[in-house]
Design brief:
single chain; alpha/beta; 7-stranded mixed beta sheet; 5-stranded parallel beta sheet; 16 helices; about 30% helix; binds flavin-adenine dinucleotide
């Protein structure tokens, strides 16, 4: 059917213009979905590259990710984005959840799921977990069973601390530190006890109590800049979307549609609709007055920020054959082998990155002091590192890595739609029900596209305009 016949003889209208502000995973996802729906999309990103918090940089010939990222089998929306970007093969998932847990003195355990249906799939591994006593292991089933009755959408659940809830279900200090922290601290980027029970429940129910492959871990085999930013730029160009880098938006003015202004008078753009896909502290000053209740926008400040620090250590020889591992009784939380992915072609060196979530205590510590702490800590966990020489050591710090996923944060997260038709919010901090993760970001971008399709880009409008 031609555009003219669809509009009953009226001349064809140009497609609706959508400005997507922010080129992180949320903005990328929204831009792709809207361009696929026939909108005339312009993606405005302040930095000189796409990808937002998932980015890479070059250091002496090595490609470094500012922060190690992993995802899980249950991250269906994120995996959908990878598929669209043609990147599924470059972000492989484990065949079965399998995590080696290291402890000082070279002790180690392996948490590996079976093929049994969830939640039985983890029981054999937990039953053998050597870092808990038999009594502690037996008690782990109590919170696992009780969690099934916790509703993450219940506002009262959002007010509770995960640690208090675990303690009330028989999880003493040792079990919380040696087992629950392994997953909750990295998933929620907050000290395990301090996390919102609602967000912890989403992680536990989806990842551990759901399908048996839900927690299988995925790790990119390409630097994040290539996996997301570069691939998205290629796809968006193919879809006819305009991507403008180095474009920092300074205001969004409603009128007949929206006028989006760039900082320092660098230009302006008229749009029929806007997706505001920037972090909450950047969204608050950009959102036009009256778009949401003032108290709601002021409340976003309460989401705060939580840092992630990555400690990068290059050895003169291989010190482990593990692709990644978790650690207990150590300042190291998770450690990843980055040798191949960084493009290192100086064998036999090995490049490890320690990922430190909830890193408030480390965010401002000089690299030299972190070296004094973490090089011996790695040697405690990996005996081969004791004889190896550290050839390079550096630190990357993301001070506002995620919002602070504490009790009460759920009530502060806004929905996609606002009071203004055509102005929608996206970002991993919005009310996705998910923690501040890649999965949350992609879900928020999809929700923004769905909302604009429903309101601004209705099928009839698109039919008329094409
Ligand atoms: C070190 C680190 C490790 C992490 N590890 C994991 C992990 O293992 N697994 C996981 O799932 N998640 C992880 N996360 C979280 C995940 O990266 C984020 O949740 C997700 O990438 C957020 O995407 P976003 O699009 O919502 O926001 P962002 O990625 O922050 O994107 C927002 C974009 O908006 C742009 N912007 C801001 N202001 C303006 C403006 N005025 N005009 C134009 N553009 C603007 C910014 O430059 C940015 O590119 C980690 C985060 C960090 C920092």
């Amino acid at each position: 059917m031609t555009a003219v016949s669809a509009s009953g003889g009226r001349p064809p209208q140009p497609p609706p213009r959508v400005a997507v502000i922010g080129g992180g995973l949320a903005g990328i996802t929204a831009a792709i979905a809207l361009a696929e729906s026939g909108a005339d999309v312009t993606l405005l990103e302040a930095r000189p590259r796409l990808g937002g918090a998932t980015c890479s940089f070059n250091r002496d010939g090595l490609v470094i990710d500012t922060g190690q990222h992993v995802f899980l089998g249950c991250c269906t929306a994120y995996r959908g984005l990878l598929a669209k970007l043609g990147m599924t093969g470059h972000a492989p998932l484990q065949r079965r959840f399998d995590v080696t847990v290291l402890a000082p003195g070279g002790r180690r355990a392996r948490l590996r799921r079976t093929a049994l249906p969830g939640p039985l799939h983890m029981l054999p591994a937990l039953g053998r977990y050597p870092f808990l006593s038999l009594a502690e292991r037996l008690r782990v089933s109590r919170p696992a069973l009780a969690m099934r009755r916790v509703d993450p959408a219940d506002p009262a659940v959002d007010q509770q601390r995960f640690g208090d809830w675990l303690a009330a279900h028989g999880q003493a200090e040792r079990a919380r530190r040696a087992l629950w922290d392994l997953f909750s601290v990295s998933a929620l980027n907050i000290a395990g006890d301090d996390a919102s029970l609602a967000l912890a429940a989403t992680v536990v129910k989806t990842g551990l109590l759901g399908k048996n492959n839900a927690a299988d871990i995925g790790v990119a085999a390409l630097p994040l800049g290539e996996l997301h930013g570069d691939a998205a730029a290629t796809l968006l160009a193919k879809l006819g979307a305009q991507v403008t880098l180095g474009a920092k938006v300074s205001s969004v003015q409603p009128g007949d549609g929206y006028l989006v202004r760039l900082a320092q008078g660098a230009g302006e753009l008229a749009a029929d609709a806007v997706v505001l896909a920037v972090p909450h502290e950047k969204a608050a000053p950009l959102i036009p007055p009256g778009t949401l209740p003032d108290a709601a926008v002021a409340g976003w400040a309460g989401l705060g920020a939580s840092p992630i620090v990555n400690v990068h250590v290059i050895y003169d020889r291989p010190v482990t054959d593990l692709a990644f591992a978790a650690a207990i009784d150590s300042p190291v939380q998770w450690v990843f082998d980055r040798t191949r992915i960084s493009g290192m072609d100086r064998p036999p060196q090995q490049y490890l990155a320690i990922s430190l979530s909830a890193a408030d205590a480390y965010a401002d510590v000089p690299a030299a002091r972190l070296r004094e702490q973490f090089v011996p800590a790695l040697a405690e966990l990996l005996p081969a590192a004791r004889d190896a020489r550290v050839t390079e050591f550096f630190v990357t710090r993301e001070r506002r890595a995620t919002f602070r996923q504490a009790p009460g944060s759920g009530a502060l997260r806004p929905r996609t739609a606002t009071r203004r038709p055509g102005l929608v919010l996206a970002g991993a901090w919005t009310d996705t029900g998910w923690p501040d993760t890649m999965e949350g970001a992609v879900r928020s971008g999809l929700a923004a596209a769905v909302e604009l399709r429903r309101t601004v880009l209705t099928a009839s409008t698109i039919g008329e305009r094409q």
